[in-house]
C-alpha cells in the first residue's frame, strides 16, 4: 500500500498551539534581549552561549535529523545516535520521527503538489512569490500534513528505542532551555545571569536555528545556483551554506540525497560533513556515503 493510500495524520489543536509558541516566543525573546542590551550590554559569555548552543543544536538537525536519520548517509554507534536525536530535539523543530517523515515526503514530491513546503505554485507575480515564501518558510507547519507520517518511518520499527527518544521530545526541548539557563547562572551569576543564559543560549538560539533551517525550505528553492539540473527547483545558496553548516548547498543535496557531503566543491564549506569525517576518524562513523566521480560528471552533464 502506498503512503498516499493510508489515512492522513491529523493536526490537533495542541500541535497548532505548540507550533504557534515555537514561532512567536523566540521573537518575543529577541525583543526582550534587545531591551536588556540597552541597559546591560552584551558580553563574551552570552555570545559563547549563543554560538555554542547554536552549533550543537544545528548539528543535531544537519548531521542527526537530516543526514543520518532521514538519509542514512553514514552509520554510527547507538550512543552517537542518541546524542544526535537529543541535540536535534533541542532545536525545537518537532519530534525526530515527524521531521524525518516530512523531509522524506519533500524529497519524494519535491516542488510538486504533494511537497509539504514548496514555495512554488502559489500564484503568479509578487503576491504569488510572497505567498510561496510564507508557505515554504513556516506557513506549512500550521496545516495538516496531508499524509500518514508513520508510513514514512517504518524503518524505525527495527529500532524502538529511537522511537522512544523521539516521543520524549518535550523533555529534550526543556533540557535545551535549562542547560544555557544553568550555565548563565554559573558563569554570569545570579538570576540575571540565568535569564541572560536562557535568552541567548535558549530562546534567541532557537530563533536563529529555526529561521536558518526554514530558509533552506524557502530561499534555497528560489534563489541561488543550480549546477545539477533535476526535476525540482533546489538551489545552492552560499550564505545559507555557511549559516546552515553546509545545508544551504541544497541543489547538491537534491542531486545526491544520500551523500554525507553537501559542499561538493572545495570552497563550499560543509561543517556538518567535517563533523561526520571527525566521527569517522574517531571510529564512531563508517560507511560514509559520497557520490562517485562518474556520478558527479553524469549529473553535471544531464
What does this structure look like?
With 302 residues, the protein is mostly helical. It has one domain (3-220). 61% of the residues lie in helices and 1% in strands. It has 11 helices and 2 strands. A two-stranded antiparallel ribbon has the order 1-2. Helix 2 packs across helix 3.
Secondary structure class reads mainly alpha
The rough form would be described as globular
Q: Could you tell me how far the N terminus lies from the C terminus, measured between alpha carbons in angstroms?
A: 33 Å
Order of helices and strands: HHEHHHHHHHHEH
Residue share in β-strands:
under 5%
Query: How is the biggest beta sheet arranged?
Result: 2 strands, antiparallel
State the helicity in percent bands.
55-70%
Strands of the biggest beta sheet: in what spatial order?
1-2
Q: Give Rg in angstroms.
A: 19 Å
Structurally, the number of domains stands at 1
Q: How many beta-strand runs?
A: 2
Q: Mean pLDDT, as a whole number?
A: 92
Number of helices: 11
Amino acid at each position: 500500500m502506498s503512503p498516499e493510500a493510508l489515512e492522513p495524520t491529523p493536526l490537533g489543536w495542541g500541535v497548532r498551539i505548540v507550533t504557534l509558541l515555537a514561532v512567536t516566543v523566540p521573537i518575543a525573546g529577541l525583543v526582550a534581549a534587545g531591551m536588556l542590551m540597552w541597559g546591560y550590554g552584551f558580553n563574551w559569555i552570552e555570545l559563547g552561549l549563543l554560538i555554542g548552543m547554536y552549533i550543537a543544536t544545528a548539528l543535531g538537525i544537519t548531521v542527526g535529523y537530516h543526514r543520518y536519520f532521514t538519509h542514512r548517509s553514514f552509520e554510527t554507534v547507538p550512543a552517537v545516535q542518541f546524542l544526535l536525536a537529543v541535540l536535534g530535539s533541542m532545536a525545537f523543530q518537532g519530534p525526530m520521527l515527524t521531521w524525518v517523515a516530512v523531509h522524506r515526503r519533500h524529497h519524494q514530491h519535491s516542488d510538486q503538489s504533494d511537497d509539504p513546503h514548496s514555495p512554488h505554485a502559489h500564484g503568479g507575480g509578487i503576491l504569488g512569490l510572497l505567498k510561496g515564501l510564507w508557505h515554504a518558510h513556516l506557513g506549512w507547519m500550521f496545516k495538516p500534513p496531508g499524509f500518514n507520517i508513520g508510513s514514512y518511518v517504518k524503518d524505525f520499527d527495527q529500532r524502538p528505542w529511537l522511537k522512544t527518544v523521539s516521543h520524549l521530545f518535550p523533555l529534550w526541548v526543556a533540557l535545551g532551555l535549562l542547560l544555557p539557563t544553568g550555565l548563565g547562572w554559573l558563569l554570569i551569576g545570579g538570576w540575571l545571569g540565568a535569564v541572560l543564559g536562557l535568552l541567548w543560549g535558549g530562546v534567541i538560539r532557537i530563533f536563529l536555528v529555526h529561521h536558518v533551517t526554514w530558509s533552506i525550505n524557502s530561499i534555497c528553492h528560489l534563489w541561488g545556483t543550480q549546477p545539477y539540473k533535476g526535476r525540482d527547483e533546489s538551489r545552492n545558496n552560499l550564505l545559507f551554506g555557511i549559516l546552515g553548516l553546509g545545508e544551504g548547498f541544497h541543489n547538491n543535496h537534491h542531486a545526491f540525497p544520500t551523500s554525507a557531503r553537501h559542499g561538493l566543491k572545495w570552497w563550499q564549506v560543509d561543517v556538518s560533513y567535517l563533523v561526520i569525517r571527525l566521527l569517522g576518524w574517531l571510529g564512531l562513523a563508517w560507511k560514509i556515503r559520497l557520490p562517485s566521480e562518474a556520478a558527479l560528471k553524469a549529473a553535471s552533464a544531464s
